[in-house]
Specification:
The chain is mainly beta. Helix content is 4%, strand content 43%. The N terminus and C terminus are likely disordered.
Length: 409
């Protein structure tokens, strides 16, 4: 018996210190109450979720020059929170819906639906005025539909902008051969070498790439992407894809399910490229689950096993399966995409329980950011509680197990 215990001990030690990162988290229950709303979450052992500050429809977040958080919203407000991020202020009120913010070299960039705006921003005490914001570049918006625009700063200090197509199966393509207002469904890179910045197509064939993040080691840009709804509740899966200059990801002409690209049965125009040109996703999520914010875990409270893995906010579905009710919608949660030898290798849950058994929703994760303290900060823009949350704590060494990688779609 003692010999068996020794074998088990060293097996757990090996699993806990394994470098392949293909790990699942052991989750335990945590009760959380915010303003009379209670929920039982499942969180990694040794960690906890805290509610830090109420905000109205917060979306994506970034850090400013002195570790303050800047947060876009579903509306005109842009929020700022200084450490310890419990007392929000409205930094500025603009117009439209300002989904995401980027900070670079003394300036902030605000991605509003119709354009990217910029203003000087020196430090966490600086308060810009609405008139300080000038249009940096116009973004396609006149065809309506998906309104979020995601802007991030790349390792090359260039600005990358994600934009979705207008509708479910709109014949729009992010390529200069299309009229400007129909250049949607992918990621732009902004050429700022001239006096007037210009949008250059970077990656196309993405129906709604809301989350964007560069891998901290490889420097590859990854996107979360919500697929069309025309095939029902169960297909196609949502995708997590590696992007590159000129890469094509198929949508809405082709959809990836049952491990290959197939006719999307969606767009009416001829596809702009061959199905063989489409880039296979790195991994997938349940159909209709709406993946949004992405952040890579670096120096994280999640532990060494999570290092350089992707954490993704799953917003949850509005759709209900045939014969179902609200309780059968895809639930909001936070997941981790494991990387092995630099490539995505499966998905595991990190925080679940935002949707109760009766279908009511406590919160819906949206934006994601790793703090300099190693903790995960995330926003909820809908549900009973909207605002800023934190996942914090330190793992015990023996709380990780190998993930069972499910490669079925």
């Amino acid at each position: 018996m003692a010999k068996h215990r020794t074998v088990i001990f060293f097996l757990l030690l090996f699993l806990a210190t394994s470098t392949d990162n293909c790990l699942a988290m052991i989750l335990r229950s945590q009760n959380l109450e915010v303003d009379g709303n209670t929920v039982k979450l499942m969180v990694p052992e040794g960690m906890k979720v805290e509610f830090l500050a109420p905000l109205d429809g917060p979306r994506f977040l970034t850090r400013g020059s002195t570790n303050e958080l800047l947060i876009g919203s579903r509306g005109a407000r842009i929020y700022r929170l200084k450490w310890p991020y419990t007392e929000p202020e409205i930094l500025v009120t603009l117009f439209g819906r300002n989904h995401s913010i980027a900070y670079r070299n003394g300036k902030i960039f605000v991605a509003e639906t119709s354009g990217l705006y910029t203003a000087p921003y020196d430090n966490s005490t600086f308060v810009p005025k609405p008139e300080d914001f000038v249009l940096h570049t116009t973004l396609p918006s006149q065809t309506g539909g998906h309104w979020s625009r995601t802007v991030i700063v790349g390792p090359d200090q260039k600005l990358y902008i994600g934009i979705g197509i207008s509708g479910n199966c709109s014949d729009e393509y992010l390529d200069n051969s299309y009229p400007f207002e129909r250049r949607r469904g992918g990621v732009y890179v902004l050429d700022e070498s001239d006096v007037s910045p210009s949008l250059k197509p970077y990656s196309s064939g993405l129906r709604n790439p809301i989350g964007l993040a560069f891998h901290p080691v490889s420097g590859i840009l990854y996107a979360s992407n919500a697929g069309p709804d025309n095939l029902g509740f169960y297909q196609p899966p949502e995708v997590f894809s590696a992007l590159s200059q000129g890469s094509f990801h198929g949508m809405p002409w082709f959809q990836y399910y049952n491990s290959e690209f197939r006719s999307g049965e969606c767009a009416t125009s001829p596809p702009p490229r061959l199905i063989e040109d489409a880039t296979t996703p790195g991994t997938t999520f349940d159909a209709r689950s709406t993946p949004e914010g992405i952040v890579f875990a670096t120096d994280s409270s999640l532990g060494a096993s999570a290092q350089n893995n992707a954490l993704i906010a799953i917003h949850g579905s509005w759709a209900i399966p045939p014969g179902g009710d609200n309780a059968s919608r895809r639930p909001p949660k936070i997941v981790m995409v494991n990387f092995f030898e630099g490539k995505p290798e499966g998905v595991v849950d990190i925080v679940t329980g935002f949707q109760r058994k009766d279908g009511t929703r406590f919160a819906r994760p949206c934006g994601m950011l790793m703090g300099l303290d190693g903790n995960l900060y995330f926003t909820s823009d809908a549900g009973e509680v909207t605002g800023l949350f934190r996942l914090s704590g330190v793992f015990p060494w023996a709380m990780v197990l190998p993930a069972i990688i499910d490669k079925t779609e």
